[in-house]
Amino acid sequence: MKMWRLLLLGAATSRCLHEETQKSVRLLRPFSQMPTHFRSLTLPLPGSQEPQPLRIHTYYTRDPVPSEAWDPAGEPRALAAVTETTRRIQGILAVPPVQGPLLLSRDPTQYCHAVWGDPDTPNYQRCSLLNPGYKGESCLGAKMPDAHLRGYSLWPEHGLPQLIQPDGPGVQNTDFLLYVRVAHTSQCHKEPSVIAYAACCQLDSEDRPLAGTIVYCAHHLSSPSLSHDDIVMVTLHELLHALGFSGQLFKMWRDCPSGLSARENCSTRKQVTRRDERGQLLLTTPAVSHSLAQHLGVPGTLLGVPLEEEGSLSSHWESRLLQGSIMTATFHGAQHTRLDPITLAAFEDSGWYQVNHSASEELLWGQGSGPDFGLVSTCKTGSSDFFCTGSGLGCHYLHLDKGSCSSDPKLEGCHMYKPLANGSECWKEENGLHTRAENPHGEIYHVHSRCFFANLTSQVLSKDNTSQPSTALYVEEDPTGCCYLHQCTHKGAYEVQVQGSPWIPCPPGKAVRIPGYDGLLYCPQGRLCLSDAGASVAATFQPMSFTHQDLLLFQMSLKLTGIPGHSLGKGQREELAELVLQALVTRAGTSRCYFHSPSITTSLLFTVSLWKSPGCQGPSTTMLHRTLALRLQKEPLQVHQGEAIFTTEYSKLRTSLDHNPSMTELLLPTGFCLLVLILVGTLGTLAYQKRATLQVAPSTT
What we know:
Layout: E1 2-6, H1 18-23, E2 52-53, E3 56-60, E4 69-70, H2 75-90, E5 93-95, H3 108-111, E6 112-115, E7 127-130, E8 138-139, E9 142-143, E10 152-154, E11 162-165, E12 176-184, H4 186-190, E13 194-203, E14 209-217, H5 218-221, H6 228-242, H7 247-250, E15 254-255, E16 267-268, E17 273-275, E18 281-283, H8 286-296, E19 305-306, H9 319-322, E20 330-331, H10 341-349, E21 354-355, E22 393-395, E23 402-406, E24 416-419, E25 449-454, E26 457-458, E27 480-490, E28 493-497, E29 504-505, E30 511-512, E31 517-518, E32 521-522, E33 554-559, H11 570-588, E34 595-600, E35 605-610, H12 621-634, E36 638-641, E37 644-647, E38 650-656, E39 691-696
Parallel strand pairs: 1-20, 3-12, 12-14
Antiparallel strand pairs: 1-13, 2-5, 4-12, 5-21, 6-7, 8-9, 10-11, 13-14, 15-16, 17-18, 18-19, 22-23, 23-24, 25-27, 26-31, 27-28, 28-29, 30-32, 33-35, 34-35, 36-37, 38-39
Helix pairs in contact: 2-6, 8-10
């Protein structure tokens, strides 16, 4: 059984009770002492077909347990999390399906008080005396209904048995039976930080888990501090334990060199764990060893993957090495947790499952750091920026949060930037409310903001207020974690924006200066904009007054094609322009306050101006234009006008400059920098004008 503690931001690490609790559960394999003519069903053994998605049947139990209280209030959240998690598991793991309905075994040590001990009698080792106190089977307090269980009999010394309980009908179309409880248990009271815990209860004839139980501590499910995504990740962690990622089950893993469909070639693995020369416990199976080598950028393979020191057995990855993995011993929230490829490799090594490795999520911690990463001897030397020294403030390695340099017992003296207790999330706008009155560092809290090391401060003007900003009064501080907007330009490249500044390119691994600020902003390398999807669709932070990004003017032109020879009068063109505008607004996902002066020519060229009207709420014009360009590239617009159909097809984006009589502008030749400085009323806002044409080639109707 596993207990995953919710380590809320700033909370302390608590001891994990997984190993001793799983030991308290008796693992049962297929067992029946009933004679053949009393059996209604065959044993639930795996079939010989090709692997199919793992079918998980969920059963909610509300049977009262002495000294424990069932809590129905948290069931809806548990139900939603289990439903989402089991659906996700079906897309990850496949098994040769169980043939017929699934039936679980009864524990003969529970229903039987004594067995025949004479080996010369025909009913040797069969139940001779029933336990009068037998009340059925359970796992972690979850009562298993008789419908899920095989029957049992009482045997005389000689002769046929007396049937006490026949086989149940079993559970159809099921490869794993999951029992779920929401309760106030003694374990929950003993360890208040425990969210849920789980155990594997029964195995099939090849030791694959057939059934397990997950128990949710009810007080956490009623807490608003725990999001749905948090509960899903906790459920996934617990379910992976019950499905085989457990120190109690490692020794049962199988080696199937010919694959799952040729099960006669499978055998129990001879060695799954061992200790290296430093005494570190390792999981040594081939797929995980190779996956870790790939993660660390080591050619070939490694001796194994370090496990957390939890006694003679361990059921978690070493936190120093695989921080953020779904199968480490502590949970820091769904935002910081990944279903990593090394964990999926472990399920491949179990020999029980076929694994969809494309479902894995990238683990950034330690990526490409070499074979010595995560050692106690190296984490304190400053050789890796994943670790820190001292007790200063900085950024969590995912750059979603500000963090403090601290340690915990699982890190064994190594330090990392851990999210602060309150208000550390850069991606939460509400965290920036208190900074608006006084914001010398220019921080921006937004869904697309990230934490950057910086020592920026607003420049101080000299006394006459006419000269250039003076740096004489600025005392450079050490860089610390600050929240600023970012947007991806392409893979591995991005721009940043500080309060009141334009977008500034931020070369990874370099430091940049920000207009209007003293100090530097440091651009992290290999942490942001890692996707191949192209530019980010990040919205721009909306300041109290308009910035130059809001006053940008774009002109977007879309070439349409319709029925050959189809001509439109003026009124029809106006109607079509309105239809195209409606489709464009829908595709943008914004209001019409960005779109102005739509028109369409006789050659079916649709044109619209993009600029942000006063009071318009949403992203900047720049970001809206980029977003539309990306979306139109992926999927053209299609507009119906009567019987005619008009479509667009993305070609390329070309940017040019144009004039606007309402703005003063400065134009430099093409290929040089564009500098535009205007004064807008009393705002004194910097802005410039820009015109772009999006050419869309005709497509066949």
